[in-house]
Amino acid sequence: IDPYLDLEQEIIRLKAQKNAIILAHYYQYSEIQDIADFIGDSLELSKKAAMTSADIIVFCGVKFMAEAAYILNPDKKVLLPDIKAGCSLEESCTAEEFRKFREENPEYIAITYINCSAAVKALSDVIVTSSSAEKIINSIAEDRPILFAPDKHLGNFLIKKTNRPMKLWNGSCIVHENFSERELIKIQASNPTAQIIAHPECPAGLLRYADYVGSTSALLKYVETCNNSKEFIVLTEPGIIHQMQIKRPDSEFHEVPSINQAGCSSCSNCPHMKLNTLEKLYLCMVNESPEIKLPDEITIKARLSLERMLELSK
Ligand code: 13P
Ligand code: SF4
């Protein structure tokens, strides 16, 4: 790419020329959020994708999110700036293992977190996101045993919220699982009036510190409407702090470092979300690639479980 090219301007030009819409998750780099037509949590992004009249959906997020947009709109072109943008939760649950569980336990209803592959969605009864899960679980007949996959931490949080026992898949998010409790305690000690806000993908050991737990959009809403604090400690991917600063310019936000495999403190960026850059966004709009494509058989089955989510979360 010509280093003097104004990427933002070019992206805006390509968007109009190709009748494209740019959807972005809160964990994307700030410059991508700033150029997006819509920013949201997983549920809102799926709803937006299902409704759009654009010809091309450029999805700035991870692959399972772009796949959900495709599944809901298989006749549209769905682009993902970096096709390697995966998710540790998706990796933890292969379609083979999931199918085996379902075959061996036919009495279970499979309620599956949207952070999974299209093949696993196709094998599931209903998909949920962190903002819709509680409502959807509460709508399931009481005598039906539930398998919740793949996030065990979100699953444990939902068991407590709904009082519903569930069998949990053994998956977790590498970002939310690795926040350093020691660093959190230090930040809290230096900022004793700050509110701690957390995503339910965090383990229970971290959630016990939280003043508020919710999906990315719910955390943003909480910050926006919280009258009794101007300081927040954020236990989710720090990309969201960009929108928090826009909504609450009077407030201060603290990210919490992670502990890496070498035992060192490091940033808590999602290595998958952050694969998308402004350069890759521009190139994917020029080349109309990488494009999301899925076999019809998977798309049709996965659409049923995703549409059930859209219906039950109303
Ligand atoms: P939200 O649905 O809350 O945006 O979560 C998506 C995600 O991947 C969190 O790690
Ligand atoms: Fe997956 Fe965690 Fe990244 Fe969200 S933050 S996309 S759950 S790895």
Automatic annotation (TrEMBL):
<keyword id="KW-0662">Pyridine nucleotide biosynthesis</keyword>
<dbReference type="Pfam" id="PF02445">
    <property type="entry name" value="NadA"/>
</dbReference>
<dbReference type="InterPro" id="IPR003473">
    <property type="entry name" value="NadA"/>
</dbReference>
<keyword id="KW-0808">Transferase</keyword>
<keyword id="KW-0004">4Fe-4S</keyword>
<dbReference type="GO" id="GO:0034628">
    <property type="term" value="P:'de novo' NAD+ biosynthetic process from L-aspartate"/>
</dbReference>
<keyword id="KW-0479">Metal-binding</keyword>
<protein>
    <recommendedName>
        <fullName>quinolinate synthase</fullName>
        <ecNumber>2.5.1.72</ecNumber>
    </recommendedName>
</protein>
<keyword id="KW-0408">Iron</keyword>
<dbReference type="GO" id="GO:0005829">
    <property type="term" value="C:cytosol"/>
</dbReference>
<dbReference type="GO" id="GO:0008987">
    <property type="term" value="F:quinolinate synthetase A activity"/>
</dbReference>
<comment type="pathway">
    <text>Cofactor biosynthesis; NAD(+) biosynthesis; quinolinate from iminoaspartate: step 1/1.</text>
</comment>
<dbReference type="InterPro" id="IPR023066">
    <property type="entry name" value="Quinolinate_synth_type2"/>
</dbReference>
<keyword id="KW-0411">Iron-sulfur</keyword>
<dbReference type="GO" id="GO:0046872">
    <property type="term" value="F:metal ion binding"/>
</dbReference>
<dbReference type="InterPro" id="IPR036094">
    <property type="entry name" value="NadA_sf"/>
</dbReference>
<dbReference type="GO" id="GO:0051539">
    <property type="term" value="F:4 iron, 4 sulfur cluster binding"/>
</dbReference>
